[in-house]
Amino acid sequence: MNKAMDGGATPLRIVSQEGHYDVVQYLIDKVALVETTYRSQAEDDGETPLLSAADCDRLDVVKLLIEACVDAAKSRTDGSTPLAAAKSNGHTEVVQYLELHLAK
Fold first, then answer.
1. CATH topology of domain 11-102
2. Are the C-beta atoms of 24 and 16 separated by less than 8 Å?
3. CA-to-CA distance for 68 and 91, rounded, in angstroms?
């Protein structure tokens, strides 16, 4: 489950991007190495599951990943953060949620 597929995408990143909440929850619940893999894992371009979810306006998945203690400020290699991705795409609810979380 931790292995990247062709192109470097991990299962968690793909299901986060697609908004499959139940599968994201399953992967978080069932994988003992969440802290060392999914929470800190980024692909070659630095794309994290949280950034993918924020970029695709998947608020429920964003909340789930934040509750699993992902690093909400982790950026891609180009410097883009989940908050910046959500802002650039006009995902207002994701922006508000991330701003609230980052203000804590």
1. 1.25.40
2. yes
3. 21
pLDDT (average), residues 51-80: 92
Q: Residue 49's Cα: distance from chain center in Å?
A: 3
Distance CA 43, CA 3 (A): 11
pLDDT digits (tens, 9 = 90+) for 73-91: 988 888 999 999 999 999 9
Indicate the pLDDT class of residue 13, thresholds 50, 70 and 90: confident
The domain locations on the chain are: 11-102
Q: CA 71 to CA 80: how far, in whole Å?
A: 13
d(C-alpha 85, C-alpha 25), whole Å: 23
Q: Are 64 and 24 in contact (CB under 8 A)?
A: yes
Other Cβ atoms closer than 10 A to 4? 13
